[in-house]
Backbone:
């Protein structure tokens, strides 16, 4: 069973479109995250949710809107896509209230290409 | 602010040899955790090894070990008996408290047969 699953794995779309990436975790973790990995492989956090509550919101354009319907799901919706949004987006989860030192479990990533 | 620096963009090693990847970090907290993640071409992020800052003993996982120098804020990864499957991007990361996991820039490791 996949612990953190993201869909789709690949997404090619035109500038100006709106798209969503879905993430689900079956680990029972209380916190989920979105990271962006740019073309130079640098990983930077975008958002985190703890039990459906937004706790980290980095400097991200407001075209990006995360939504967490329950603690097992964290979706990322992107409006008016731009060329610079092309990247790999990773979802991750962790159990913050217990063993923080276990680190994060990552999904396999979604490669978004905006043309 | 929490920062993690990997000064080696690329490293290469002969198969069966040993290689060490460098990492330095900066944090204002006394309690934190350090990690090395591996990202092969499949792009999956795989946890390699973790270290609790309050533990002086260096963590070891099979062929992977760390050299944790808390005063110097250094956390290097040693890979012994390198194998072709070790070829990947390696990321050092720091987690303090319940805050965000901050990554270094990554080191691309090539294994030469």
Residues:
């Amino acid at each position: 069973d996949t612990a953190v699953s993201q869909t789709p794995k690949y997404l090619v779309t035109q500038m100006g479109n709106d798209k969503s990436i879905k993430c689900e975790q079956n680990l029972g973790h209380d916190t989920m995250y979105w990271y962006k990995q740019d073309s130079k492989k640098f990983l930077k956090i975008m958002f985190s949710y703890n039990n459906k509550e937004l706790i980290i919101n980095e400097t991200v354009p407001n075209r990006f809107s995360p939504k967490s319907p329950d603690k097992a799901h964290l979706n990322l919706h992107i409006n008016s896509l731009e060329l610079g949004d092309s990247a790999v987006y990773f979802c991750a989860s962790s159990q913050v209230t217990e063993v923080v030192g276990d680190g994060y479990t990552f999904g396999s990533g979604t490669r978004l290409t905006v043309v | 602010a929490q920062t993690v620096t990997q000064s080696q963009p690329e490293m290469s090693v002969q198969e069966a040899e040993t290689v060490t990847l460098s990492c330095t970090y900066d944090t204002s907290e006394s309690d934190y955790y350090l990690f090395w993640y591996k990202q092969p071409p499949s792009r999956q992020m795989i946890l390699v090894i973790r270290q609790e800052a309050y533990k002086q003993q260096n963590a070891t996982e099979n062929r992977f070990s760390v050299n944790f120098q808390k005063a110097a804020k250094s956390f290097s990864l040693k890979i012994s008996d390198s194998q072709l499957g070790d070829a990947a991007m390696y990321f050092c990361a720091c987690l303090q408290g319940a805050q965000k996991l901050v990554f270094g820039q990554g080191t691309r490791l090539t294994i030469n047969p």
Summary: The longest strand of chain A covers residues 43-50. The mean pLDDT of chain A is 91. The radius of gyration of chain A is 13 Å. The interface with chain B takes residues 31, 33, 40-45, 48, 56, 88, 90, 92, 96-97, 100-106, 108-109, 111 of chain A (CB under 8 Å).
